[in-house]
Amino acid sequence: MPMPASLRTVLFTLFITYASTVAHAKSVIVFAEHRPIAMTNNEHPPKDIYINAGSIDGLKVGEILSIQRQQTLYDTYNNKALNNLVFTVGKIRLIHVQHHLSVGRVVALANYENSPAVDYDSIMIGDHVDLSTGHMGSAKTAAISNPKVQKSVLATAIASLQAKTRAKRAKIKGPKSTSPTVADAKATVPIAP
After folding, report:
1. How does pLDDT run across 26-52, given as a tens digit for each residue?
2. Cα–Cα distance between 185 and 49 in angstroms, integer?
3. What is the pLDDT of residues 2-16, one digit of tens each?
């Protein structure tokens, strides 16, 4: 039994609408990274991750998003491209959201004991942002959980405490004098028999 023309028109319109929506689906990626220059050896400024999605996409400050990397696998034995390998590289917390872009800071990096080996083990330009994983984070969630960053933060804190301790000791002992003391004079004066 043939389909009525009006039903065909409706189905065709729905198909075209769906196809154009899928074809124009937004691919959200990391398009830039910026880190201020460290002014001291112990300073480790945070790295800002810029993504091409914003409030128009429903993003909010404080939201946690997963960052994924896609690598094409190539079978050199059979000389053909296989499928794409997609895996999570890390997570960012959004610190600034505008209409069409957002800025995030790294909250966690992937544990590579249970992940594929990669050349660059941090978030980089071209990585994809999975908006479906977005959730609001708390202040505790926003704490940096990357062991490398934790070590650098700890080293900075230790260096700061050591500097404060040295300053307190110098204040207690007073300034070092370069003029000779009585003890120096006794040591240099010969004792007569």
Report:
1. 789 999 998 888 888 888 888 899 999
2. 65
3. 666 666 665 656 555
- From the number of C-beta atoms within 10 Å of its C-beta (0-12, 13-18, 19+), residue 102 rates as buried
CA distances from 25 to 20, 129, 155 (A): 8, 13, 44
Query: What is the C-alpha to C-alpha distance for residues 105 and 16, in angstroms, rounded to an integer?
Result: 39
Q: Nearest-CA neighbor of 49 among 112, 91, 110?
A: 91
Rounded Cα gap, residues 27 and 50, in angstroms? 14
Q: What are phi and psi of 143, to 5 degrees?
A: -65, 140
- Give the side-chain half-sphere CA count within 13 A for 57: 22
Query: DSSP characters for the chain?
Result: -PPPHHHHHHHHHHHHHHHHHHHT----BEEEEE-PPPSSTT--PPPEEEES--GGGT--TTEEEEEEEEEEEEETTTTEEEEEEEEEEEEEEEEEE-SS-EEEEEEEE--TTSS---S--S--TT-EEEEEEEEE--TTTTS---HHHHHHHHHHHHHHHHHHHHHHHHHHH-PPP-S--HHHHHHHSPPP-
The single residue listed with the structure tokens 């220059």 is: 37
Which pair of structure tokens corresponds to residue 94?
């959004």
Question: Is 100:52 a contact under the CB 8 Å cutoff?
Answer: yes
